[in-house]
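My current task is to audit a protein record that another person submitted. Alongside the sequence sits a line of tokens, each denoting a local backbone shape. Where you disagree with what is written, explain briefly why. This is what I was given:
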Amino acid sequence: MSARFETKAGAGYERWRSYELRPSTAADGKEDVYVAHHRLLAVVECYRSTMSLEAILRDLDGKDVHHRNGIKWDNRPSNLEPIDHGEHAKLHAATASTPTPDAGGVSAAPAGD
């Protein structure tokens, strides 16, 4: 298995790609698998260390990982929050007319953390 870091074109989110052998895949059992970097970070930063991985993944199922300050590449733990997908959609619909910092040309991570 190999992995490499790349940016998802058009969406602005960092993601990891893994080239994995999977017996259920038709193309010689090989498949590209992508996961958003902020979702990986949420697993280790937004949950208690005593919680099992299975319980964390169960909780994340159906949730989005929200960037509190609106900057998609600001993956500091204090900026990430797992929230229900429907709640996340409503939150962004309510602020859709307000430009987010990443749309306004922010080029440096905020100070702190």
Remarks:
- Helices lie at 37-45, 53-60, 85-94.
